[in-house]
Amino acid sequence: MRYAFILLLFFLPLLNTYAQELNRREPVRYEKGFTVPELKDLMEFQVSEGDTVYIRFKGDFRIRYDDITAVQSRGRLRYRARFGFFVDLPSNFKVGMKLISSDAQGTSGGDPISGNTSFENNGTKKFVFFDWAYASWETNIGERIKTNISFGKFSNPFQYSDVVFDNDYTPEGITNNWIVNFREGSNFIVHAAYFQIDENSNTHRDPFMGGVQAGIDFSRPSKYHFFGGVGYMQVVHAQELTNDAVPNKNVGNTRTEDGVLVHSFRNLMFQIEATKYLGAWRKFSDFPVEVGGELLLNTAIENNNLGWSGFVTLGKADKKGRWEIVYRYKYLERDSWYEEFVDSDYGAEYEEALIGSGQGSGYRPGTNMKGSRISTRYSITNNINMGLIVYFGRLILPQGERDTMVRRWQYNIEFKF
């Protein structure tokens, strides 16, 4: 199966001739402004005469072959489908909704940190869930300050990598974001948010996360881009997050035999990213080289409380014919951060079941991990790209003498519209 998928990846560039013809055609426009009579006829929206409502559609479909090489290896075909619409209402209000594929997690909905669905169970009809469902309002204060507030289920506002939040994690709660432009190309940015993690029907001790991130963003077109930030995040009532309280996908945190978290999470976060554009080269008008890293420290405890990552990126696969290569190293100690927030693709081999984890031995993602990730991506057209991601993960605190290394290969083909 792996080799058949690799052959398919190499076959795709042969579509370039046909793709060039498609790119020469008039592009389809997915944004349209509707007048009041049109809205009343088509959608029966109640808006004032003279107002215009804009509706935008966006989506993507990705097919993946996922191969995990461990003591108990496995390979599987999976897909992720996303489709959303976004409505710009009068008076600077917006409403957004996005649907996503995912495997069901009992009666709680879909997987919170993955939109992948496996090919299995004799072609059963698959589930679709809400990935976004929010309303927002934004306004300008003078000429240099912009702010918005969103309520519902929305895209994660914090500018962190998957060492802090899995890329598929879309929280529920309230977020407020500020951008202060103090000169051309230079902004002061603040993100503040309240994430409701769970609702406890037996007490007012509902677990939630509160956080803030502030940073400076400098950019000069075709020259450079820089971002540096600091943040603080706290998970309140973490002891209510037992294994059966939320979907139990990751492991790593210290728990009692009953699955109760032993430690709290009060984290300082630091981040820095810098991009330099090196000028025209092949398909690139400005070839980018980016480096950066993150540091997180759980100040609630003194041991096993550190996490960090560093990366370097060459190129960017944002247009037809462009490519990118990314190397990232991760180090995430056992109680450095809440296990159910972090990357669900990055794991290692447990020789025995981790105490209180609610899961058995074998391959498990989460915290208590260290290792590398190498990814490459190529844009066949402006809307189609293919890529490969390779993970090399080990446990920081192994249970025995056996090697805990796991290699995970992900071959992707993605279509965007």
UniProtKB/TrEMBL annotation:
<dbReference type="InterPro" id="IPR032638">
    <property type="entry name" value="Porin_5"/>
</dbReference>
<protein>
    <recommendedName>
        <fullName>Porin</fullName>
    </recommendedName>
</protein>
<dbReference type="Pfam" id="PF16930">
    <property type="entry name" value="Porin_5"/>
</dbReference>
